[in-house]
């Protein structure tokens, strides 16, 4: 079956990084997305309305992304998980419980910095409505954020509980949109239009293959840092840079990046954390040096060993059946999974940039799209020099 169209265009038809011929390592899954990991679903609520000056009612360029590790039916079922904060100038709720229990069992939501509250509440309301037995115990939702205040009226309370619920309800498998959708709607990357990006890699493991998928809300990087396929391009792309001009010499590279890593390989919580620690290596391939003002927080989970790490209230006295058991990849065989994370992270950043369009938001602030033709010309020139 020919997978090329699936890998090179997003559902709306806009090109992804592979359509530009950018050389990328590794073998992607059928959709080249986090949803290539069976049972993982992604849903969006995208809010785009209004024009003109900031007036408390907009303009609005924001939204919510929901990632369901085990689908709708699997909400409340535990997955092994681990998180890593590369730079803590950001927020991911529920991190203390992840560190304590090594698991997650609820949808993961990503939004803007000032909308964490309604998304947290929306997750609880969705679970109470659809999984009342789960909601009868405690709920510690995972909600992460990045800042979209350059394009969006971030203080306007435009993201509501209903938007969070809709993102969970809308979550689906297969090919997913990228760029200015969901929580990534108002985000910027290397001072170009950024936002939501995803990619996946197949890892061969003897008798079978596993999938590693990465989803990023990419909102980081200074223009001059941008590197594509190992070629420093930022200095050649500085002529249209309204975002960094807006901040008038203030901190560049700010904004944050949230990364979610999924795999169907059986892993321990510490191994999920080890995957999360590799995301910065993939980001670095695209040029970032990790700004102090960029909260870069990453979460990895495994869909194998379903519910082995559940933290529910026990029933009755302990017995000879009161044990949990887990299969896991030996630590000495983890390197191919680390490589998959790095490769998929790099491509997810590029997809967020390539599969995007210019956006104008609050006060006429503009975020230009990555100029495909200039990028291709620069890459072609480098290849000619090397040859």
Walkthrough of the structure:
It is a single chain. The protein is of the alpha+beta class and 387 residues long. It has a single domain, classed as L-amino peptidase D-ALA esterase/amidase (4-Layer Sandwich). Helices cover 25% and strands 22% of the residues. The chain has 9 helices and 16 strands. The strands form 5 sheets. It has a 6-stranded mixed β-sheet, sandwiched between helices. It has a 4-stranded mixed β-sheet with strand order 1-2-5-6. The protein has a two-stranded antiparallel sheet with strand order 7-8. Strand 11 and strand 12 form a beta hairpin. The longest helix has 20 residues. The radius of gyration is 20 Å and the shape is globular. The N terminus is likely disordered.
Q: In terms of quaternary structure, what is this?
A: single chain
Task: Give Rg in angstroms.
Answer: 20 Å
What kind of sheet is the major sheet?
6 strands, mixed
CATH architecture: 4-Layer Sandwich
Identify the CATH class.
Alpha Beta
Beta strand %: 15-25%
Give the H and E element order.
HEEEHEEHHEHEEEEEEHEHEHEEH
């Amino acid at each position: 079956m020919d997978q090329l169209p699936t890998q090179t265009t997003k559902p709306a038809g806009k090109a992804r990084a592979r359509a530009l011929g950018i050389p990328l390592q590794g073998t992607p899954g059928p959709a080249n997305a986090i949803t290539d990991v069976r049972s993982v679903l992604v849903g969006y609520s995208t809010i785009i309305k209004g024009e003109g000056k900031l007036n408390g009612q907009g303009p609005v360029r924001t939204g919510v992304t929901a990632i369901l590790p085990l689908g709708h039916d699997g909400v409340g079922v535990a997955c092994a998980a681990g998180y890593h904060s590369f730079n803590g100038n950001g927020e991911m709720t529920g991190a203390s419980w992840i560190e304590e229990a090594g698991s997650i069992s609820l949808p993961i939501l990503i939004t803007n910095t000032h909308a964490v509250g309604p998304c947290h509440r929306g997750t609880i309301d969705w679970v109470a409505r659809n999984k009342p037995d789960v909601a009868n115990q405690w709920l510690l939702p995972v909600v992460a954020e990045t800042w979209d205040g350059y394009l969006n009226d971030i203080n306007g309370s435009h993201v509501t509980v209903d938007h969070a619920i809709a993102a969970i309800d809308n979550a689906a498998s297969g090919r997913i949109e990228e760029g200015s959708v969901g929580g990534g709607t108002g985000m910027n990357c290397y001072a170009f239009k950024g936002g939501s990006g995803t990619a996946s890699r197949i890892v061969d493991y003897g008798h079978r293959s596993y999938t590693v998928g990465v989803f990023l809300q990419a909102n980081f990087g200074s223009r001059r840092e941008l590197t594509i396929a190992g070629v420093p391009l930022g200095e050649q792309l500085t002529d249209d840079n309204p975002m960094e001009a807006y901040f008038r010499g203030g901190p560049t590279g700010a904004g944050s990046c949230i990364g979610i890593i999924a795999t169907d390989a059986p892993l321990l919580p510490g191994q999920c954390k080890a995957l999360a620690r590799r995301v910065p290596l993939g980001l670095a391939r695209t040029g970032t040096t990790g700004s102090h003002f960029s909260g870069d927080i990453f979460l990895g989970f495994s869909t194998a060993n379903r519910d082995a790490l559940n933290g529910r209230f026990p029933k009755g006295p302990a017995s000879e059946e009161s044990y949990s058991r887990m299969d896991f990849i030996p630590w000495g065989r983890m390197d191919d999974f680390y490589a998959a994370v790095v490769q998929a992270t790099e491509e997810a950043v590029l997809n967020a940039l390539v599969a995007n369009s210019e956006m104008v938001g609050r006060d006429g602030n503009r975020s230009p799209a990555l100029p495909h033709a200039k990028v291709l010309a620069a890459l072609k020139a480098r290849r000619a020099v090397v040859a």
